[in-house]
Amino acid sequence: MTNLGARTNGISLNQVEIPIHANGVESKPSEESSIDYSQRGQWLRAAVLGANDGLVSVASLMMGIGAVKKEISAMLIAGFAGLVAGACSMAIGEFVSVYTQYEIEVTQIKREREANNNGGVDGEPQMKRLPNPFQATLASALAFSVGALVPMLAAGFIRNHKIRMGVIGAAVSLALLVFGGVGAVLGKTPVKRSCLRVLIGGWMAMAITFGLTKLVGSAEL
């Protein structure tokens, strides 16, 4: 009887396992899974685009000037002009683009409300997900400026022309990898693919600008 009491249906009482997860704890969504990456993408797209554009365009501009001018002042002035003009252009272009998208989506939401005779309760989540033109504009302009400062700082303290050109190329390559990696991590996309894409694109832009400017400069046009 003692043995029978110690076992029930062939299962030892000492082997009974008590689940450690209690009352719906397992079904609770994690903090990471609740992040809306599409909402994050509204400003992330503008920031990544602005940083890469500032880095590549100003670096290419300085490399082009360096193809025909060895003076450091000429390269820095060209880089500064590219920074200011590019940041303003990116800000205006991003505002116009995102605001146009905003108006289109607002019009579509209103059209759906009228078609469904909806009082607007269901449309509130949609309104919260609309793109923010001012946020995109600020992110794009600041990111462009940060990217443009990289080649300028890399060239600012080097007097030797050949070494300066090499340092600019190395600094820009490293920054392209960093920007590509940061954008991939924040957007939850493949890191290696993103880094290679921006790196190869930046190299192509600098090489083409340098080559064409050198060709035009040698022809004395």
Automatic annotation (TrEMBL):
One of its GO terms (molecular function) is iron ion sequestering activity. The chain crosses the membrane at residues 72-92, 134-158, 165-186, 198-217. InterPro entries: Ccc1_fam. The keyword Transport applies. It is found in: Vacuole membrane. It comes from the Eukaryota. GO terms for biological process: intracellular manganese ion homeostasis. Its main location: membrane. Keywords: Ion transport, Iron, Iron transport, Membrane, Transmembrane, Transmembrane helix, Transport, Vacuole. One of its GO terms (cellular component) is vacuolar membrane. It is a multi-pass membrane protein. It catalyses: Fe(2+)(in) = Fe(2+)(out). Vacuolar Fe(2+) uptake transporter. Belongs to the CCC1 family. This is Vacuolar iron transporter.
